[in-house]
Amino acid sequence: MSSAINPTTILVGEGPAAREIAVEQRPGSAPGLFWLNGFKSDMSGSKALAVDAYGAARGLAVTRFDYSGHGRSGGDFLDGTVSRWLEEALAVFASTEGPQVVLGSSLGGWLALLLNKALRDRGDARVKELILIAPAVDATKDLMNARFSPAERKSLAERGYVERASQYGPEPYVYTRGLLDDGDRHLLFDGVIETGCPVTILQGGKDPDVPQEHALKLVSHLLHDPVTLTLIPDGDHRLSRPEDLQRLQDAIGRAVAG
Questions:
Q1: Which residue range forms the structural domain that includes residue 12?
Q2: DSSP 3-state assignment of 252?
Q3: What is the CATH number of the domain that holds 58?
Q4: What are the protein's GO molecular function terms (predicted)?
């Protein structure tokens, strides 16, 4: 029932800001599934592949891509900002057709909300539903900057970046001043968040990176649209265990059928 994946690249930006974005699209029927990775994750991660497998088994179109500085895409990770990655998401979304279920993990959850807002501001209401996994909304302010130690703040002031050890790989996470400052342009918790579509949130109760309180804060800002929050008490940030991936695929099934 599945169609072969079509790997392509999309050029985003101009001049020195131009970068090649690696995209994998599986042709199929609507609604399509549009996947947004987390910070320092790529489109070959277990959740991204679970989304693709769901679409492949049911003949649905699936779109995945790597942000600049991630995976197979061009560009320098240290140049990465929310604005830059949002621009790439919009460019890739423009290559899709028909209604889309947009799924975002961690930072990708924030980008999913920003993508939907930008589209609806343009009169494009093709986002059928948002599925957010441990959504790191306003992460640069609430989940990065607010947690820095005095030593890390000194590093940011003197060196322009902060390095933090990662429990998900050998390389440290690097947070630049450019990323943090740009994030302030995209904060959503300063008012009501209007999505114009249903929102499903999957949240781990033992997530050290995006705590469950953060998901509850998001729910408190979604006042006018249907919201389903599933709290997984023993779930971590990744939510990549077989039972977690099944929950994700079940959520896709409900969104597609809705």
A1: 6-137+188-257
A2: helix
A3: 3.40.50.1820
A4: mycophenolic acid acyl-glucuronide esterase activity; palmitoyl-(protein) hydrolase activity
Tell me the C-alpha distance between 131 and 200, whole Å.
5
Residue 151 counted as domain residue: no
CB 144 within 8 A of CB 215: no
- Residue 181 forms part of a structural domain: no
Tokens 């790997």 correspond to what residue?
Answer: 7
Whether 10 is in a domain gets the answer yes
**Cα distances (Å, whole numbers) of residue 16 to 1, 19, 20:** 42, 8, 12
Q: How many domains does the chain fold into?
A: 1
Strand partners, 174: 163
Residue 129's DSSP bridge partners are 101
User: What is the value of pTM for the model shown?
Assistant: 0.96
Among 37, 199, 231, 193, residue whose Cα is nearest residue 130: 199
pLDDT by 10s per residue, the chain, length 258:
567 998 999 999 999 999 999 999 999 999 999 999 999 999 999 999 999 999 999 999 999 999 999 999 999 999 999 999 999 999 999 999 999 999 999 999 999 999 999 999 999 999 999 999 999 999 999 999 999 999 999 999 999 999 988 777 778 889 999 999 999 999 999 999 999 999 999 999 999 999 999 999 999 999 999 999 999 999 999 999 999 999 999 999 999 998
User: Phi and psi for 33 in degrees, rounded to 5?
Assistant: -110, 125
Q: What secondary structure does DSSP assign to 142-195, as a single string? A: IIIGGG--HHHHHHHHHHSEEEE--TTSSSPEEEEHHHHHHHGGG--TTS----
- The residues, any chain, with a CB within 8 Å of residue 176's CB and separated by 6 or more, are 78, 80, 160, 161
Residue 185 to residues 118, 122, 175, Cα–Cα distance (Å): 13, 18, 16
